[in-house]
Write a sequence for this structure.
């Protein structure tokens, strides 16, 4: 998944959380009545305060996916079954928390080129998620520079309209961790999306998926 089926839609996706930043973002999104997709990293869910954040996000109506990272640097040291079992274990951690198994998955960037892992993930029935827009929140990390993140959206939307005279659709990559400017930028990002007349949707709405979680 790298774009939506309907022009004018924007699916914001955040991975590597949950964290303190996620909590701040949930408040912003609640006030804006907007929905996004969070890819939870199961490693953080063993900590009570972070588990609570992901549960909160789910109950607020956001879509919960999974960020997955291999337990070792490369899949070459692991059997297919070991990888599948590890993925299943991570998935179960999320299911224990919100009552449903994640279906949408982002692979940690250190494993993105691991073709064996990618094919195993697909055979297990997960939907792999990419993006066609990067909000660069890892580049603009302070409160002072967070406005630059909203400008990324403004520039993308304006260039699209100038070139084609119509809206496109976007799946945006962001990171809900404190080391990025994602949380600080979000109020301005939401305003920019609204100003340009785009609709914020969850990933399942972006691809018209009636079953956003695995059975």
């Amino acid at each position: 998944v790298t774009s939506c089926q309907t022009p004018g839609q924007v699916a914001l996706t955040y991975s590597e959380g949950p964290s303190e930043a996620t909590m701040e973002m949930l408040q912003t999104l609640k006030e804006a009545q907007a929905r996004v997709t969070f890819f939870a990293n199961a490693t953080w869910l063993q900590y009570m305060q972070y588990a609570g954040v992901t549960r909160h996000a789910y109950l607020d109506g956001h879509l919960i996916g999974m960020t997955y990272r291999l337990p070792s640097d490369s899949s070459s040291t692991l059997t297919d079954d070991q990888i599948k079992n590890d993925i299943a274990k991570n998935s179960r951690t999320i299911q224990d928390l919100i009552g449903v198994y994640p279906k949408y998955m982002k692979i940690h960037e250190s494993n993105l080129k691991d073709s064996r892992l990618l094919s195993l993930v697909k055979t297990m029935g997960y939907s792999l998620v990419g993006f066609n827009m990067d909000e660069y929140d890892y580049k603009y990390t302070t409160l002072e520079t967070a406005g630059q993140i909203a400008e990324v959206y403004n520039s993308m939307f304006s260039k699209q309209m100038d070139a084609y005279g119509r809206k496109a659709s976007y799946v945006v990559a962001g990171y809900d961790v404190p080391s990025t400017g994602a949380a600080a930028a979000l109020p301005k990002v939401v305003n920019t999306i609204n100003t340009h007349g785009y609709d914020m949707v969850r990933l399942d709405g972006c691809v018209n998926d009636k079953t956003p979680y695995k059975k």
